[in-house]
Amino acid sequence: MSTTEHTMKTIPAKRVPMDSLRKTALIGGGLYLITFISSIPAWFLLAPVLDNPDYILGSGSDTQVLLGCFLDLINVFACIGTAVALYPVVKERFPAISLGFVTARVMESVFIGVGILSVLTLVTMRQDYSGAGGVQSAGLATVGHALVSLQEWTFQLGPAFVVGVGNGLLLGYMMYRSRMVPRRLAMLGLVGGPLICLSGAAVILGLITPSGTVSSRA
Fold first, then answer.
1. What is the pLDDT of residue 103?
2. What is the DSSP string of 93-158?
3. Which pLDDT score, from 0 to 100, does residue 211 have?
4. Contact 139, 85 (CB under 8 A)
5. How far is CA 212 from the centre of its chain?
6. What is the reported pTM?
7. CA triple 58-64-65, angle to 5 deg
8. In sequence order, what are the residues at sequence separation of 6 or more whose Cβ sits closer than 8 angstroms to the Cβ of residue 21?
9. Neighbours of 91 (CB within 10 A)
10. Residue 96 scores a pLDDT above 90
11. What is the separation of C-alpha 91 from the centre of its chain, rounded to a whole number of angstroms?
12. How far is CA 107 from the centre of its chain?
């Protein structure tokens, strides 16, 4: 036996302890729970803006809307946190796919962040130009419609389309192959992911409207 072979046999391979991986997976699961806890109430809190493109001209429910933005911001950090937490668990077996999953989660967070900025800009302009009339009022209405439309599109491209790829296809495939979760649960992602992507693509191509039944966020 050569010296090199003897050294390779005597030096144990470095592996992440199973308890550490289990703890990391639990943290990732907890962060996923936070994304639901924050994003669902945020959707209802933002309803005064999303359901009323003329919000910028009215009295407004600014406190409610700002709270919705804050919850969406928590959702952004939780989204990135899920990727950071789960990446060490799956990177050894799925190096390329796990990197794609992290990228998808970051992209989703960017889209959500742009949506937050559009709503915050709308609220600020409503506060600064409240009571405007005439031509200025018409211009504000146009800006308000544009900002609401931007927020709606950030959802279609982020929490809708990108989620179908990241959480649906990529994460679902890794969970299915690794058996880290029951295979029936992983199949929900493998089946639901493509459906979400198809829905988002149909909206982008103008085949269905964002307010349609297929693409509804509620």
1. 93
2. T-HHHHHHHHHHHHHHHHHHHHHHHHHHHHHHHHHHSTT--HHHHHHHHHHHHHHHHHHHHHHIII
3. 53
4. no
5. 21
6. 0.79
7. 70
8. 88, 89
9. 16
10. yes
11. 21
12. 8
Q: Helix (H) and strand (E) counts for the chain?
A: 9, 0
CA distance 109 to 199: 20
Cα separation, 34 vs 29, in Å, equals 9
Q: How far apart are CA 180 and CA 166, in angstroms?
A: 17
Looking up tokens 């998808």, which residue turns up? 104
In degrees, rounded to 5, the angle at the alpha carbon of residue 197 between the alpha carbons of residues 169 and 94 is 20
Residue type, 9: K
The residue among 194, 197, 190 whose CA lies nearest residue 171 is 190
Long-range Cβ contacts of 178-182 (<8 Å, 24+ apart):
178/90, 178/93, 178/94, 180/25, 180/89
Gap between the Cα atoms of 140 and 73, Å rounded = 26
Question: Is residue 205 pLDDT above 70, yes or no?
Answer: yes
